[in-house]
Design a protein that fits this description.
single chain, alpha+beta, four-stranded antiparallel sheet, three-stranded antiparallel sheet, binds zinc ion
């Protein structure tokens, strides 16, 4: 029984590298610079208690600043459900873009 649990823990840990981080890809409205930021789902989330049971969500706010073309911080707000799946995202002074677009050029 103990061994089985250890095995499960190990599988879980091995898979965690992908699930404990959420990468957000954005493009600056002002200069068009493409930027990305990492949301650490283990440390960056603050819980938002919902009135309904089991409806708690997690909030992650990021201010992403470019590498010098302009100093406009892009404000990103990510909302995750209790299973840490993204359910909502908001952005100010930028646009969300994809990983593929980020790596393009
Ligand atoms: Zn910019």
């Amino acid at each position: 029984m103990k061994l089985l649990r250890k095995l499960i823990d190990r599988i879980r840990t091995a898979g965690e590298e992908d699930t404990s981080n959420y990468w957000v890809y954005v493009k600056c409205d002002h200069c068009g610079e493409k930027l990305r930021a990492r949301a650490d789902l283990d440390n960056d989330l603050s819980i938002r208690y919902a009135e309904a049971e089991g409806g708690n969500t997690y909030l992650c706010r990021k201010a992403i600043i470019g590498n010098g073309r302009c100093f406009n911080p892009i404000e990103v707000e990510l909302t995750f459900d209790h299973q840490r799946s993204l359910v909502d995202k908001q952005i100010q002074d930028g646009q969300f873009t994809s990983e593929a677009e980020f790596h393009a050029e």
